[in-house]
Design brief:
Layout (H helix, E strand, L loop, with lengths): L2 E7 L6 H8 L5 E2 L10 H11 L17 H5 L16 E2 L7 E2 L2 H21 L8 E6 L14 E7 L2 H15 L12 H17 L6 E7 H6 L1 H12 L5 H6 L20 H4 L2 H15 L8
Helix pairs in contact: 2-4, 6-11
Length: about 300
């Protein structure tokens, strides 16, 4: 069964695309290698499992409108037979809501893993069987994996939020539209408040109990890619090729907003107003000092 590796970012523009490129240099790691590497199969499957126990109104009227998948499976919808599940397999919960046992997700993930591994074997008899599945994770369902027999790995990416802010604004200007959770028409200051709250929430979020994690600073990643590749590779037990990532740099030039990765560090000193830089540090500095960041 594949072990999920979540690339956990505190906000956009923290190096997730670079890390996906890096872990993708190992044949032991699988994911859909199409930029921007955001096909979230794990998140989809987790959400599907959660919806088994969640009631959601149907787009159409009828006997299944407003009932959960669990109600259908258990035969609680008038006129529709259940699938023969026994009530003992579900946890009714304190409020009487149906919640499928975590083993349901384990079964789903095992089936997905088998498909991926068989597909890899079919492409080449000599190709190694993948052991890990990588996926970007930001407040998504993939952070809600509830099966203890599916061990999680998490690469926790952090970056100076002042550089994050500078990079987000530059990237949005470069592509001609807003992203990263910014609504159309939302003011710069309103979005800045939103980003601060989002970063604070992400830094304070607890990963699932059965998660093994490693912290990677963006600044270290771009300054010493080979060293960080060796450290992450050792943690995963795979060989990662920093040189292969460097050779692909021109293919990802459109993703960059600085002359080089190294030039993107400390850009806040010239790229954003001083009052915005002070505000970001005042709001987030106490937490960020734990990762070695300083106010100046």
């Amino acid at each position: 069964m594949l072990t999920p590796v979540l690339i956990r970012q505190m906000a956009g523009r923290t190096g997730t695309t670079l890390v996906m490129q890096l872990v993708g240099t190992s044949a032991d790691v699988t994911y859909e290698r199409t930029y921007p590497f955001e096909r979230s199969y794990l998140a989809y499957l987790v959400e599907a499992q959660h919806r088994l126990a969640r009631s959601a109104p149907s787009a159409t009227s009828g006997p299944t409108s407003g009932v959960s998948f669990a109600d259908l499976f258990l035969g609680r919808v008038p006129g529709i037979d259940g699938l023969g599940f026994e009530p003992e397999i579900v946890d009714m919960g304190a409020a009487g809501a149906v919640a499928f046992d975590p083993s349901c997700f384990c079964t789903i993930w095992r089936g997905f893993s088998d498909l991926v591994i068989r597909s890899a074997a079919g492409r080449s008899d000599r190709a190694p069987r993948p052991r890990f599945y990588a996926e970007k994770a930001v407040n998504g369902p993939n952070l809600k994996v509830s099966c203890p027999v599916v061990p999680l790995r998490a690469i926790r990416l952090v970056r100076d939020p002042r550089d994050v802010w500078a990079s987000i604004n530059s990237f949005d200007a470069q592509r001609g539209f807003h992203g990263f959770g910014r609504d159309d028409g939302q003011s710069r200051i309103s979005y800045l408040w939103f980003l601060v709250r989002n970063i604070a929430d992400n830094l304070g979020q607890t990963l699932p109990r059965h998660t093994e994690s490693i912290v990677v600073r963006y600044e270290d990643l771009v300054a010493r890619l080979a060293d960080e590749a060796a450290r992450i590779g050792s943690w995963l037990g795979v060989d990662l090729d920093a040189g292969a990532v460097a050779r692909q740099r021109d293919q990802f030039r459109h993703h960059m907003t600085s002359a080089s990765e190294v030039a993107s560090v400390g850009r806040w000193r010239t790229d954003i107003p001083a009052e915005e830089a002070r505000f970001l540090w005042e709001q987030l500095g106490d937490e960020l000092e734990k990762f070695g960041y300083a106010p100046d």
